[in-house]
Automatic annotation (TrEMBL):
Pfam families: DNA_pol3_delta2
Protein name: DNA polymerase III subunit delta
Species: Staphylococcus rostri
Domain of life: Bacteria
Single biological process term from Gene Ontology: DNA-templated DNA replication
Entry-linked InterPro entries: DNA_Rep/Repair_Clamp_Loader (IPR050238), P-loop_NTPase (IPR027417)
Length: 309
């Protein structure tokens, strides 16, 4: 049963909550489910009404989002003013706040007051990919709806078919995130094709020419100048060695960098399971050090040194 089917069943059974917190990594699924649930609450089967909600043009529906770092104070003030009014066309009012973790503490407290004493027939739907950043008091006043991460293959296909990604770049993004918004922002901000090429060349050197891999750290970091790109590099390197593990266990349908399958077959014969496990653990440790603000050059050099050792 999908999330919208569960929510629909609860609605039909008269178990509508005043506040929902949608949480998970699949932001696209959360957004589409929130919209469908709002249409159900406000419109039932009225197609004209549903179209108004879809276009964010229904007087009893309010949708808050931002492309900036924080949701602004005036957006929340407008929302509170809107929701304190009586419904105009429906029996209920529904408001959706996308990326709820972007609220300031002041904004969260404003919503908290709203959740503690909700106006009659008002439903809040809060969406978050980072629920750990939300106040516990908000969590305790919401019904939680958990969304499973989008499957990697589905994510790649979505980027190719709906976001104009090439399949190689979509595959690269899938090593780092399953959020379409994050992938799109990265693709717009950086040249990812040259970065992908440099990363995979460095992975090849890690296996075949480790002295050259040590020298290659300089070139790698020329293309990955900030922490986000360095995290992407580590995620891609990890995926490369996960691919080798899939080759060894005969799960070729799971590999990410499919154009390397021929090379993988040769490399996999030279590495045993213990070595591959050690490499993947080394990359995991490198990621922790990067997050602890250890020098990126040192982080990547240590990967090479530990592989040589």
């Amino acid at each position: 049963m999908t999330e919208i089917e569960r929510l629909t069943a609860a609605y039909r059974n008269g178990k509508l909550s005043h506040a929902y917190l949608f949480e998970g990594n699949d932001a696209e699924a959360m957004t589409s489910t929130a919209l469908a649930f709002a249409q159900l609450i406000l419109c039932q089967d009225n197609e004209q009404c549903r179209m108004k909600v879809e276009m964010h043009n229904h007087p009893d529906f309010h949708y808050v989002r931002t492309d900036e770092t924080n949701i602004k104070k005036d957006q929340i003030e407008q929302l509170v003013h809107h929701m304190n009014r009586l419904p105009i066309e429906s029996d209920y009012k529904v408001y959706v706040i996308q990326d709820f973790e972007k609220l300031t503490v002041q904004g969260e407290n404003s919503i908290l007051k709203f959740l503690e004493e909700p106006p009659t027939n008002t439903v809040a739907i809060l969406l978050s990919t980072k629920p750990e950043q939300i106040l516990d008091t908000i969590h305790s006043r919401c019904q939680h709806v958990y969304f499973k991460p989008m499957q990697r293959a589905d994510f790649v296909t979505y980027l190719v078919e709906h976001a104009e990604f090439t399949r190689p770049i979509a595959a690269l993004m899938s090593t780092y995130t399953t959020q379409v918004e994050v992938a799109t922002q990265l693709a717009e901000a950086y040249e990812l094709a040259p970065l992908r090429q440099v990363i995979l060349q460095w992975c090849d050197k890690l296996v075949k020419q480790q002295d050259m891999a040590l020298i290659g750290v300089i070139e790698l970091l020329k293309h990955a100048k900030n922490k986000q790109l360095q995290q992407l590099v580590l995620a891609t390197v990890n995926a490369y060695f996960q691919d080798l593990m899939y080759i060894k266990v005969g799960m070729t349908e799971k590999i990410i960098f499919t154009e390397l399958q021929g090379d993988y077959q040769t490399i996999a014969t030279k590495l045993d399971y213990r070595q591959l496990t050690h490499i993947i653990e080394t990359i995991t440790e490198a990621h922790k050090k990067l997050m602890q603000n250890v020098s990126p050059a040192l982080v990547f050099e240590q990967i090479v040194i530990k592989m040589k050792g």
